[in-house]
Specification:
This protein is mainly α. It has a domain at 38-80. 66% of the residues lie in helices and 0% in strands. It is extended, with a radius of gyration of 17 Å.
Amino acid sequence: MLNSSSTFKKLPARYMAVVMPLILSSMMSAIVSLISTVKSLGLQPDLLGIWLGAWLISWIVAFPTVLIVLPIARRFALLFVQPPQP
């Protein structure tokens, strides 16, 4: 787990709106494309290469989608959840 005392210089907080969707879309598209690739093709010797190609295409779609959809999802979630108190 990463800790706050790491030695590299961190980005300013204003970049969180891009960095968090970048990480989220990378992880989600990797998991979903791996499951879909294995389900479609089974375990094959060249599965890694096939999956990486599928993941790249998935991520190219997922990242801008998350940037657009995340604010909408937040507003929708606030219909069911109390907003955080300052």
